[in-house]
Structure prediction request, 254 residues.
Amino acid sequence: MNTVVLREIMSATNETSSAPRVLVVEDEPDIAALIAYQLTREGFRVETASTGDQGLAAIDREQPDLLVLDRMLPGLSGDEVLRSLRSEDSTRNLPVLILTARREQEDRIEGLELGADDYLTKPFSPRELVLRVQSILRRSDAPGADAGGRLLRAGRLSVDVTAHEVTLDGEELNLTPTEFRLLQALLERRGRTQSRRQLLERAWDVESEVADRIQTRTVDMHVRRLRSKLGDLGDWVETVRGFGYRLKVPEGVD
Ligand code: CA
Prediction:
């Protein structure tokens, strides 16, 4: 099978066991091979699968550090794979980059609402893909790397930046790495309005070169999901029309 052959090529070219592992689920062999080649060149360990079922089985065997997931797959679709991953505790926070061939805005939004961390529309440049993958991984690593036991608090909400844990009324909230960084950026500058562009640079930790190309709509979608996870505290994340967002903690709350 295509999967096995590619895996052998990749392991022959890259034996570094500490390198991040990326699983690519893509049914078009040329695209899968191109992505695998680029990521391997950048030092990633890459495994490929050509169907959703194979992808889920590969994740079951060994969870990757990041999943590149095509939306349009034969059999189990990319959306179904993503939904399944997000419904399991063990894979809820697995970083996912969605590939979509469809250009409709609605399709992209759906992907993000299902819990993807980012998306790329085909055709994309291999360089772009590498930048996005690196950016997502920086985001998911950054809270842990940011040592010092920092705790951010606002009333019933508490964010442990080191442990990468958010609790509301003592109950842990399950946030994706992106949602975590977004909440952290809002909390660190509470009361101050931040533009979507600023949030992209802070929460997404991307350089301006990339921020230009990630649509600000992406920020809106993640804010929407963060709000819903915050329950009744979701109202604290205020939209500042025509500018961006701010975290407005009510008077009397520490
Ligand atoms: Ca496809």
About this structure: Confidence is low (pLDDT under 50) at residues 142-148.
